Amino acid sequence: MKRRAVAAVTFIAGLYYFLEFVLPPQVGGDFDQARLGDPDVQRRGNRFLMWYVGSSQENSSAIGLALSDAGERWQKWPHNPVLRPVSTSSFDARGLASPSVVQEADGSFTMFYIGHGADAADRVGCARSPDGQRWRRAGVVLDLATSPWMKPRLTALRVHREASVYRMWLAGTFRWGSRTIDGVSLAFSSDGRTWTLDPHSPVLRPERTGWDSFRILSLDAERAEPQGYRLWYVGTHQERQGDAWIEIGQVGLATSRDGVHWQKHRRNPLPLPRSENVTSVGVVALGPAEAPRYRLFYSVEAGKSIVQASGNAEGPEWTLPPSPAVLTVGQPGQSTYLSDWSVPIADFLVVIAAMAAGLSLYSLGKANLAILLRRAPGRAVSGWDRAGAAAFFASFVLMAIFAHWRQADEGHVCRKIYNLLFFGFLFPFGASSMGLLAFYLASAAYRAFKIKSAEAALLIVSATVVMLGQVPLGQWLTQGLPRPLQIQTWSAWILYIINGAALRGVALGAAIGALAMALRLWLSLERREE
Amino acid sequence: MQHADWVILTLIVVFTGWILGGILRARRGAAPFIRRIPGLNAIEEALGRATEMGRPILFSPSTTDEKQIETYAALKLLGYVARAAARYGTHLIVAICKPTVYPMAEEVCREAYQEAGAAHPISQDVRFLSPDHAVYSMSVAATIEREQCACAFFFGSFDWTSLLMTEPGHRAGAIQIAGDSQISQIPFFIASCDYTLIGEELFAASAYVSDDPTLKGSLAAQDKCKLLLLAIALLGALLMSVPAWQNCAFVELFRRFQ
């Protein structure tokens, strides 16, 4: 009876988790039901177009279009999104960001955007359209994933076309040659397909301290008359709120005569209304005769809406219209209810884990008490054993008491004691264990690596090549040879091609074995061993 | 949480069908032959050695919690070792890292000992040591040295602290058998242990030691699943090698396995 009950509960629990994996949390709903941002606003005569990024509950982002006749009331295009991730393509499989549309000489449109790849690298992609509404993707135009150890993290881009010169301002962090570039970079192209990074990059950096000390999250660039450029950007800094650090964004302005050398405005950050935490910005410059000169579109409330403010670049007054929110998030889909229960179930599992933790602590305390009182059956207890048991109780009690002050002010005496126990004892203990590992590694390798067979000889030779290829000594030894014969090339080939294939084979087999075991557990087909 | 797309769902359905089909076929009498795995053969040898020497056995069932499937594979093997230890009257020490695994390991040992008719409290010794991996590994090493264990088993999923347990065990003269489905610690186990189960051999161990046709049937079906993946990999490599076929629909489908 007990076994049948356990089997039934196991089956129901497994069925729940299997269906939660198979089914999405929602069916239907708008593509921008969770967040929207990254507006690229452009004026075509009296008409305004806004390409923006919308995200769903599953954090997959796509690009949509909104239209307005006078820039006041906006309507989302009914056939949104205009560009979405293609599931089998790797460069934008995890989502799209920061669209920037330019109009070509023949009247067609080209959109440049950031694609978040399945390999966790961001790349710049391109799409083309005859009318700004129907788009066809044209692949990657700028791939900054040159280093296997650092994936590019891009946050925003803007592209301008003047005659046959394309300029791209690109915000993010990536590895370029021997440098790590963090900030806004500049790239040039003559056809929009092949780009060259300006050697002055980054042309704008986050400051060391202040409102834009963390990163540059969004940007928009516009041509300034009579010459030069203006860059509107969202700079962020981090603030501590309780146990967590949160990122706060504000809008700043920078000017440049050549697009390369920038001066930040002395009144940064701009005193925009409702700008407690801005995540993206887009700007449209009205005609010279119109006032105010600029309309700034920025996303607020954690991306729940895009608001519009009007003002002049040099002046402090920015005003909101009567209805400042020009776009808000879309309608959510129909819930499949499975994900709605995942949090209560997780809470229930936490309660069970807490009960198990209490049981384990009781067992540990009982075992150490038996040692301390010399009542451990069948076991000789030495003085060191009793000292260890006493140390267990002392450290348990001390940590349980002083952990209450772990978030107190640094000067509080109890906080100092907690820091001593945690950072002064426990951390160095872990570090010492890791140091001990180095010696154990050497002794195990010395004992195990003996050339007793042809396979062992092959192992030793390949290990030597791989190790030498990782260190400057090995690179120095073969620096005069052609690149294909240098030791780091051989080392990378052994590590990533030969070894990589073997590791994938083992991992595939283990994954299928895990699937089979999970099936047997779920259906209670595992029997007791004989 | 990630959700399946149609490619993954299709593979899961196919693999599940083959595994369940293999189980049903084996139950009807067509149990397949499973080759001998040296690491699993050595378990009996190690248990016998510990009994002859009158020294205890140490079993470490993974440093991960109940959310990892490797923990269940390790607990299956714990049941087998506990039953054998009960039969031979050998002291078994089970070192637990995560609190949520402690009641599961205790229940497995209690059932094994009760069924063998050996409920002596000394014989089964399930000890929760510490959830901190560094402290746990040092405690296991100290236990092996202090208790003079004749053999030590490390089955499940381990991290950088694996060598901190196995190297002192080797110095103490214990026979060590390890099994980890994840590949990161396999080299360290191979260098410091006497026998190592690599990858899926850990999951196959429960089928191997139980001699149950159900489990043997699923083991054979797993090989069919691997053959399908191998065929997809070979076909994809062939198509990617020919420029004219590099952008065909099947290659687009195949690209998700990058």
Low-confidence stretches of chain A: none
Most extensive interface, chain pair and sizes: A-B, 65 and 80 residues
Strand percentage of chain B: 5-15%
Secondary-structure-based class of chain B equals: alpha/beta
Number of helices of chain A: 7
Helix content range of chain A: 25-40%
The oligomeric state is heterodimer
Strand content of chain A: 25-35%
Helix content of chain B: 55-70%
Shape of chain A: globular
List how many beta strands of chain A DSSP finds. 23
Order of helices and strands of chain B: HHEHEHEHEHEHEHHH
Largest sheet of chain B, in brief, is:
6 strands, parallel
Taking all Cα atoms into account, the compactness measure Rg of chain A is 30 Å
Question: What's this model, at a glance?
Answer:
In chain A, 32% of the residues lie in helices and 31% in strands.
List the helices and strands and how they pair.
The complex is a heterodimer of chains A (530) and B (258).
Chain A: H1 2-22, E1 26-27, E2 35-44, E3 47-55, E4 61-68, E5 74-76, E6 95-103, E7 109-116, E8 122-129, E9 136-142, E10 153-162, E11 165-176, E12 179-189, E13 195-197, E14 215-223, E15 229-241, E16 244-256, E17 262-264, E18 280-285, E19 294-300, E20 305-311, E21 318-319, E22 325-328, E23 334-335, H2 342-372, H3 383-402, H4 413-448, H5 454-470, H6 472-477, H7 487-522
Antiparallel strand pairs in A: 1-23, 2-3, 3-4, 4-5, 6-7, 7-8, 8-9, 10-11, 11-12, 12-13, 14-15, 15-16, 16-17, 18-19, 19-20, 20-21, 20-22
Chain B: H1 6-27, H2 38-53, E1 57-61, H3 69-88, E2 92-96, H4 102-116, E3 124-128, H5 133-147, E4 151-155, H6 162-171, E5 175-180, H7 186-192, E6 195-198, H8 201-210, H9 213-241, H10 249-254
Parallel strand pairs in B: 1-2, 1-4, 2-3, 4-5, 5-6
